[in-house]
Each structure stands twice: as C-alpha cells, then as structure tokens.
Design brief:
Number of strands: 11
CATH class of the largest domain: Alpha Beta
Order of helices and strands: EHEHHEHHEEEEHEHEEHHHEHHHHHHHHH
Structural class: mainly alpha
Oligomer: single chain
Strand order of the largest sheet: 3-4-7
CATH superfamily of the largest domain: HUPs
Number of domains: 4
Helix content: 40-55%
CATH architecture of the largest domain: 3-Layer(aba) Sandwich
Low-confidence stretches: none
Number of helices: 19
Length: 484
C-alpha cells in the first residue's frame, strides 16, 4: 500500500500549534514511508471563510519547511484541492445516498430548527420517512431543502484506531441525522471530507482528538457509499500546564506569532514532534531530516501532551547556539531593523558592528528578539540610565567615584587590546584599589550599556569603539560627581 495522508484545515482562522502538530505528523509519516503528503483546503463553510487564514496557512507551512506534495499552488493528479472548486462532485454522491435510501430531504425552516434547539430537543426526524407523494407536496411548496443522513436507529459502529485501539459507539448516541448538503448546494464537512478522502485515495487519517466523535458517522458514510474506510489515527490532545486544551490564555498559539517572538522554525519542528511522540526516553534534539527518517506511529502517546514553553525555550536556545555567525546575523537582522536600531538595508558600518557583536551574545540568546535588547546600547546612547545602578553593593556613591576616577582614563585603550590583556590590567587595578574586580567593572558596564546586564564588557567596548566608550564613561563620572 502506498501511503497517502492529508492535512485539510478549514480557513476560518490562523494556524495554531495543535493544527500544525497534526500537519507535522502527517508530513513525517509520508516522508518516512515514501508516501504522499496532501494539502487540502476545506472551505465549504463560507460564512466563516477567512482569506487571511489561507495565506497564513501557506506562510506557516513554508516557514516550517513542510512542503506538500499535492495541493494548492503545486497541483497534483487528484485536484482541485480546494473544496469549493469541487462542489459539483458532492451533489452526485448526495443523490446516490438519496437513491439508496441512506439519506433524505428535509424542509425545516431556520425558525423551526432554532425552536428545537431553544427547547433543548434533538432533531425530530420529521421528514425521514416521507412517502413519494408527501415528498412531492413539500417540493411543490418551494421551500429550500437540505439532505440529511439516515443514522441507523439501533446497533453500533466502531473503528480500530492506531493510537486508541478498538472503539465502538452506539448508533443512538451519534448526532441525529446530520445534514450532508446545505440548502445553498454546498456540502457540510462530513460529506465533503469523506468523499474527498476516498477520491484522493487517502490511506491514513491522522487528526486531532476533537474529531474522534465524528469517526462513527464517517464510517457509516463510507459503508453507505460502498467504500472501505481509511486507517484512523487520532492524535493526543495538546494541553497547557493546567491540563486544559491549549488556548490563548496559555500564551502564543498562532504559529507565526512564535516567529515574531524570535523562535526558529527548526526549534518549533523539533519541539512539536515531541508533543505526543517520543523516540526514546533521553533524546531531545531532532532535526527535520532526523524525524523524516525515524518517525513512527507506534510511538505516539495516548495521553494528553503538555505544551511546555520552558522546554521550547531551551530547544530554541540550542538551535541558536548551533548557528554560524553569518547565519545568526541573518536571523537577528530583521528584528534589529524592525526595532529601528539598524537601517534597511543595513549600512556597512552597522553590519560590521552587528557581525562583530554576534559572538558576544550568541550563548545568551533564548530568542532572536533578545538581540535587540542586548545590542541596543551599540546604536542608542543610554544617556538617561539610573545612576544608582552604577553603585556596587556595599559601596556608596563617593567610594564609587574614587574607583571610577581611576578607571575612566583606561577605557579608551580597551578596544585595542585582547580580552585577556584587558582582564589582567583591570584585575591589577582592582588589587591596587583594594576592591573586587566586579566593583571595578560593574560601574563601567552600566556607564557603557545603561544596564548591569550586557554582553561581555570588553568585547562590547570593542564594537562600540574606544572614543565612544570613553565619552560615555567620562559623562557618567561627571553625573555621578554631581550627586555628591
């Protein structure tokens, strides 16, 4: 059997973590089996259609490197891959179900249906067993009709799921005679989904657990149409740290929001693969190429999978540290430009500063966006920082001034020496002043960067330039003296 899997989102919103985890698992199974990954857009619910959602879908999958083999933009032998472009196909299958007695036309008005819902009642199947004469009478009234599926009134329906095993439902517990074709001539999700999966020869349906209750209805539809159902594999739920379904209250859920927050696509792929799947109990880092080789369905968990932002941050930091200087420069440059620190395009001077600073901050980054805060002082003079930040613990302003008066004349030459030479010189100066090295360097760090936390001091001054660093140090000393 040649594996064919699909990711069929409804473009009613933006791509979120749970949906993309489903896309990833489908993609990986196609790659590991040498199968086909199909992208299909299920847009039959035109009342909720969102054109931005379609573009967000394409952009998200492209950013993550999940290339679809068939679908919109790339084509394929089973197209079209947008359901509204296939609307003529569904009518014939609805008619086939009517002719075989597995479906019927219903003429309820929206007001009547709303009255049933308001009364807390299920649909009453009033049109299920009309005689041909009664049907003709209703047709003559010109009331728009829908096509409803005849769910069996007794018995049970089951599936054998790859993850959850054998599951069975009593037919009386399946939603009462759901609509297959709406009065506007478009199919509902249930009919379109089943017809498309069959016509596109989908072999495995891998989807979120929220679709598990739909499985018995879909199996009944397959049986009514005389088709063999595909293999089902319902994935574990993605939850927040409180055990509830992942939502906005847990943080970012739209995938491209993670890009805006400075996550690498490699980190998102690596982490998402581990949300509900494990290779072993120790391996944490997987490239996409690794996953395309080792992914397997038998290692998918049944239990809900917790989305751990701390673990994602750790993985993101790992991938940042693995980048070359040139690659990390290219990744952080757009964030520096968006923050107004660097021109678009960057000047040769700005490029030199950032490239030189990359090795100083690479080990300190959890997110690409961290670079803007860590490198801001190289482009924006922190003239108004809080002077109290310059004063070391256990010292006062007067003691700090005495130390800093000895340090300021040494600043200009820092950029011309190696870090080792600078450390030796400043350590000797601290010993002469009978104080700790930190009491010498910390006031200088604040004077240069405006903060007690910055990239390595000597390297920072080298990127800033000796003249600029000396000017900042001299100004800070004057300001500090004015407080005495």
């Amino acid at each position: 059997m040649t594996v064919r899997v699909r990711y069929p989102p409804s473009p009613t919103g933006l791509q979120h973590i749970g949906g993309v985890r489903t896309a990833l698992f489908n993609y990986l199974y196609a790659r590991v089996t040498g199968g086909t990954f199909v992208l299909r857009i299920e847009d039959t619910d035109q009342t909720r259609y969102d054109a931005e959602g379609v573009e967000d879908l394409y952009e998200t999958l492209t950013w993550l490197g999940l290339k679809w083999d068939e679908g919109p933009k790339v084509g394929g032998d089973f197209g079209p891959y947008i359901q509204t472009e296939r609307s003529g196909l569904y009518t014939s299958y609805a008619e086939a179900l009517l002719e075989s007695g597995h479906a019927y036309r219903a003429y309820d008005t929206q007001e009547e249906l709303q009255a049933m819902r308001d009364a807390g009642k299920e649909y009453d199947r009033r049109f299920r067993d009309l005689s041909p004469e009664q049907h003709a009478e209703w047709e003559a009234k010109g009331i728009p009709s829908v096509v409803r599926f005849k769910v069996p009134l007794d018995g049970s329906t089951g599936i054998s799921d790859v993850v959850y095993g054998d599951i069975s439902w009593e037919n009386q517990d399946i939603p009462v005679d759901p609509i297959l074709m709406k009065s506007d001539g478009l199919p509902t999700y249930h009919l379109a989904n089943v017809v498309d999966d069959h016509l596109m020869e989908i072999t495995h349906i891998m989807r979120g657990p929220e679709w598990l209750p739909s499985a018995p209805l879909h199996v009944l539809l397959y049986e009514a149409l005389g088709w063999e159902p595909p293999i089902y594999c319902h994935l574990p739920l993605v939850v927040g740290d409180d055990g509830q379904k992942l939502s906005k209250r847990h943080g970012a859920t739209r995938v491209l929001e993670f890009r805006q927050k400075g996550y690498l696509p490699e980190a998102i792929i690596n982490y998402l693969a581990r949300v509900g799947w494990s290779y072993d109990d120790k391996t944490e880092i997987f490239s996409l190429a690794d996953l395309e080789r080792i992914f397997s369905l038998d290692k998918i968990s049944k239990s809900p999978a917790t989305f751990d932002y701390k673990k994602l941050d750790w993985i993101n930091g790992h991938y940042i540290r693995e980048l070359s200087v040139d690659a990390l420069y290219e990744r952080i440059l757009p964030f520096l430009q968006a923050d107004g620190l660097v021109d678009t395009p960057a000047s040769s001077e700005q490029e030199a500063i950032v490239r030189g600073a990359v090795p100083l901050i690479q080990e300190r980054l959890k997110h690409l966006t961290d670079a803007t805060q860590q490198l801001r002082f190289l482009f924006v003079d922190p003239v108004d920082f809080d002077l109290s930040e310059m004063i070391p613990k256990k010292l006062d302003a007067a003691a700090t001034v005495k130390i800093f008066e000895q340090i300021v004349p040494m600043v200009r030459a820092i950029a011309d020496r190696t870090d080792e030479e600078n450390e030796e010189i400043f350590r000797a100066q601290a010993a002469e002043l009978e104080t700790k090295l930190g009491n010498v360097l910390m006031p200088l760090r604040v004077a240069i960067s405006g903060s007690r936390v910055s990239p390595p001091l000597f390297g920072s001054i080298r990127q800033l330039g000796g003249e600029e660093a000396a000017m900042r140090a001299e100004r800070a000393l004057r300001r500090l003296k004015e407080t005495l």
